[in-house]
């Protein structure tokens, strides 16, 4: 059995509520495969719990399945008894939880609510009356992020204000993701993170007894591999018009970052693209980016693939399905993918560096208290050309900043790269004074960088440090 990894913060929060008296309610949501069910099953070990997962079926069938699950846990001698309505189920649960702490979990709740829209109001009534007087710990869990935010958490929801806590479960960060492949090298761990995006299910598929190359070939570049058709499977579960969303994601994956560019490439109306884009942002597949310190400038809004697995798949799998279906995916990997992995990892490495910068800032290891991190892009007036800054860390209280440059290359980062970064000092909002320069390198640094780091306020960071510190 695979050991449970991570999620200590979430487990601690749930345990704290479990030990408190009275009714408790947690709303948990997050993209598919992120590990919600695994986390909940870990939490209920050794506890009395009713775990029910709704399915895309009729309301009556889900009611029958819920009835069976409730009776299996609370009255195993009466498993043939079925409740006639959700009202009856909830009333029975209220009685059973009056004097005993029982966990009640409805997983994939959107499937249930879509079949019976009155369910939200019915739950509200029981939470406000019978359940409030008992000891139930109630979980509503769902993979449809937009539904959970709009129909469960928002002010318009009948359940608004009833929850005790909410957990949006996110993918693992790059350091947590490394725990799934502890024997791999740092570079291999980074690549595993780069192709999975830290999604728990995908990480669990890697067999560290096999090489990284073998794992990638089997998962992505074999027609029977789990991840070979995964993005299209996910889109089918999330959206009705899969072709529309697939076209938009493909446009973003091909470097179209502005709404107008995406509309032009897909030959769709801007309003239609905007609507679909909002849904993709809500699900966490697309990220809307703003140049840090310049967020109000709408011209500097751009869209990027937030999901690393999607980015890898659309770049290296989607255009080459013919050769993979032909059974030559291993050759495609060796000839096309593997030589380009380092280039692909450039953007992933930047994300890792921004995360690490925030970690350093909150641990008081920088020359200022960085509490916000992003990137900046725009025009360099001195050179009259477009430029960008990979990492910008801000101290919002003291109005200080750190700037960073990231290089995921098989060569030492030298003085030339530092000089280029130093030239960008002054481009971000003038209210922030730059106090330090961060240099991130996969392969290390030249002697000049190491000798002048104190004099020039340079903070050099290797890939190894990013995993060890």
Report on this structure.
- The protein contains 22 helices and 12 strands.
- It has helices spanning 8-19, 36-43, 59-74, 86-96, 109-115, 119-128, 145-153, 174-177, 186-196, 200-204, 212-220, 230-238, 242-253, 259-266, 270-283, 308-316, 321-325, 329-337, 341-362, 415-423, 447-452, 463-468; strands spanning 24-29, 49-53, 102-107, 136-142, 165-168, 286-290, 301-305, 372-380, 385-395, 400-407, 433-441, 458-462.
- α21 (447-452) links the parallel β11 (433-441) and β12 (458-462).
Please describe the structure with a list of short key phrases separated by commas or semicolons.
5-stranded parallel beta sheet; 5-stranded mixed beta sheet; 22 helices; alpha/beta; 469 residues
Apparent shape: globular
Secondary-structure content class: alpha/beta
User: Could you give the distance between the termini?
Assistant: 30 Å
- The multimeric state of the shown protein is single chain
Largest sheet: 5 strands, parallel
Catalogue the unreliable spans.
none
Kindly summarize this structure in a few lines:
The protein is an alpha/beta fold and 469 residues long. Helix content is 45%, strand content 17%.
